Amino acid sequence: MGYVPDLPRTILRDCSTCEAMPTWMRRNPTNDHSPQSVYVGVGQIVSYRCSHCGKEEVRVWFDFSESRVKNKDEAYSPIAGVTLRKLGQWPAQRIEPSRELAKGLTEPVLDLFKKGLTSLTHGFGLGALAYFRRVVEDASAELIDLFADRAGADGDSETAQAIRAAEQNSRMEDRLKVASEALPPTLRPGGVNPLAVLYAHYSRGIHGLSDEECLTVAQQLLFALQYIFENWKKQMEEAAQFRLTVQQWSNPKKTPERPDSRAKE
């Protein structure tokens, strides 16, 4: 009969428990010792489980159909074609941000960010921009603290204080504007001010823009958020760690003095 295509025995998939992308093994949803699928009336269901932690599992619902060709003698030939069609998945597939970005956001803000990504993927510009604007609003304190901490670590306490002063403004546009204006040249990679870029796209707002225009602004806002929370934050953390290590080399801990044996009893 020849080779008949089937779902792969193993897949590579991100595991939130392992925080890595290990191999997932195919298994029967009701029998750990079998890789076979289960028939459910319409289609079949097969499971894949993370082979590293054994905790994460995904179930795939699919349909398998064959096609044959009728010969001149009215007899059907062997299988001429096979179609594998995915019908569903549990847990539902979601657009996920990178781990670096996810670690920099609180759970409520991360949920908004994921919804923005989903809207962007489906081409819903108005929805994507609304979600990303909320991300900027709710994460504004973390954004400002991020740059203020870096300025303070560089020994520029005056600039750090000026950046943090932006948090006193009630309007989001004013916060980003004041913080971006206080950003020194040393915190502007390639001469570009990350907070100014964020402010420029946030302040454009939603009113008066078409869905297509909102989609463009949302993509630009996403790029700025990803750069700050992934690349820029990582660079600042690595720079801080490097500076701390060098300082420890320059100022090694003193060896504790031995008790004076001549001390008075």
What's a concise summary of this model?
This protein has 265 residues and is of the alpha+beta class. The chain has helices at residues 99-103, 107-121, 125-138, 140-153, 157-164, 172-182, 194-202, 211-250, and strands spanning 10-12, 23-27, 38-39, 44-50, 57-70, 76-90.
Question: What is the element layout, followed by pairings?
Answer:
Layout: E1 10-12, E2 23-27, E3 38-39, E4 44-50, E5 57-70, E6 76-90, H1 99-103, H2 107-121, H3 125-138, H4 140-153, H5 157-164, H6 172-182, H7 194-202, H8 211-250
Antiparallel strand pairs: 1-2, 2-4, 3-4, 4-5, 5-6
Helix pairs in contact: 2-3, 3-8, 4-5, 4-8, 5-6, 6-7, 7-8
Description:
Strands 1, 2, 3, 4, 5 and 6 form a 6-stranded antiparallel β-sheet that branches. The chain has 265 residues and is α+β, with helices and mostly antiparallel strands. The chain is built from 8 helices and 6 strands. The longest helix has 40 residues, at 211-250.
Q: Averaged pLDDT, please?
A: 80
Q: How would you sum up the major sheet?
A: 6 strands, antiparallel
The H-and-E topology, N to C, reads as: EEEEEEHHHHHHHH
Give the overall shape, derived from the CA principal axes. Answer: elongated
Number of helices: 8
Please give the share of residues in helix.
Answer: 40-55%
User: Any idea of the CATH topology of the largest domain?
Assistant: Four Helix Bundle (Hemerythrin (Met), subunit A)
CATH class of the largest domain: Mainly Alpha
In percent terms, what proportion of residues is strand? 15-25%
Task: State Rg.
Answer: 28 Å
Question: Judging by the overall fold, what is the CATH architecture of the largest domain?
Answer: Up-down Bundle
- Overall structural class, as computed from helix and strand content, comes to alpha+beta
Report low-confidence residues grouped into runs of 5 or more. Answer: 261-265
Q: Between the first and last Cα atoms, what is the distance in angstroms?
A: 97 Å
**Number of distinct beta strands:** 6
Q: In oligomeric terms, what are we looking at?
A: single chain
- Count of discrete structural domains: 2
